[in-house]
Amino acid sequence: MRFSFDSVVHLYRDTYYKMPQSLKTFLGTLYGNIPIEIRYGKLYSEFMKRYIDYENADEQFKQDFVYNKTLETLIFAEENIPFYKESFQKHGVTAKDFKSLDDLKKFPTITKHDIKANLSRMYTDKVEKPVPYFSGGSLSTPTQYFHPLHTSRAKHKAYSMFTLAKAGYKYRDRTVLIKGREVSKPEKDIYWEHEPVDNYLYLSYNYLSSEKFPLMYEQARKFKPKFLFGYPSAVLSFIAMSKQYNKPPLEIEGVIVSSESIYEPDFHTIKEFFGDHVNILADYGHTERVVGAYRLNFDNYKFINAYGVPRIIDNEIVGTSFDNFVMPFINFRTADEVSGDIVFFEGTDIAREVKNIEGRTQDYLVTEDERLVSITTMCGGQHLPLDMIRNLQYRQTEPGKVTVLVETRDGKIDKEHLISGMKKLVRDGIEFSVEEVDKIERSPRGKRIICKQGLDIEKIRRKK
Length: 464
Hints:
This protein has helices spanning about 5-10, 15, 20-30, 35-40, 40-55, 60-80, 80-90, 110-120, 150-165, 215-225, 230-245, 265-275, 415-425, 455-464, and strands at about 130-135, 145-150, 175-180, 190-195, 200-205, 225-230, 255-260, 280-285, 295, 300-305, 310-315, 315-320, 330-345, 350-355, 365, 370-375, 390-400, 400-410, 430-435, 450-455. The chain contains 14 helices and 20 strands. The chain has a 12-stranded mixed sheet with strand order 4-5-3-6-7-8-9-10-14-13-12-11. It has a 4-stranded mixed sheet with strand order 19-18-17-20, covered by helices on one side. Strands 1-2 form a two-stranded antiparallel sheet.
């Protein structure tokens, strides 16, 4: 039976976040101290064993494993997902045509546009309850996906613990987190929050580059973290602000970065500030949970091929999922690009390692006091009236003022609702105005433009 106790608790996380801090501390500490193998159930242990066994296996085992799991996904999709059944027929292929790893190239690719247009025909509830997730990325409105209630969280938690252990991280090690949900309470002059379940100290990314930094730094110092975990831009901002206020490096063992691209100079900046003894682990993944990879210090990115299968087509990562028996992804074009040397499974375009994963360039909005707010922050689907919006685009030419162009689904939009949701994501510092338009322009290559930023972001960053 597929079951994860944590996945049920996770459904009530918003209620938990709204509780008074004292109650969150009590309940979170109590829950966090339950062994992770119990919280995530048998599935967690099975997936962790899979990753370990795969890493230690010989070459033939690895190729056989990837082949069998890919075939499993193809068969399930063909038999249970109307979109794939019709798409395979249209391209003249069936799951039976998959006889070697290289045969994956015979099957059609899909994009986020395909998912948006065919969502109702791309998932099933026959095996597990579908749970919706939202992803922003390069599209100007979040794309909705579905994951299996129990399997997905147990599998991904095992993957996270397996990869983070490469940097020496153990579950519930004290960690300063600068990513994810916004935790600031400006009216109380509080820009941090302790999350006892995972033992994170959240710092507000939106106030990191402000005069509030010394307060935030002091909270981080008193927390005595072993790790710093955040967007690469957040970690670099933390370093820049520490230097600006003459604060010494936190005495940590490792830095973990994810959700944005990180480049070679960034690794050097982090090493130079925190010390050569500090491991830097860059995690690559996405909301779709199709493929995953990690990079430790200056090594190549290593794909976890027991998690999902990554092909490289014209330097783009194209992934096929494993274990998603709600909404499988087959040859999903991630829009994330790689560069440098690539190590393939012999005779295929399936990647084992790549030198660099460039990813998509992250856009920023600028507050009145010239804080940088990542567009990632603005992709919180739960705060925006997605049922009213087809596309949107942010435009800025002046700090603290942003115009939002909106393509509506039926010609109606609750502007106040939209602005209220955006303010919840940013908290303060930006005055939003909304303009309804018939169509939002695309780039010359046909890509949607989520942000047209008229300010010099790098100049503003250098001033910090």
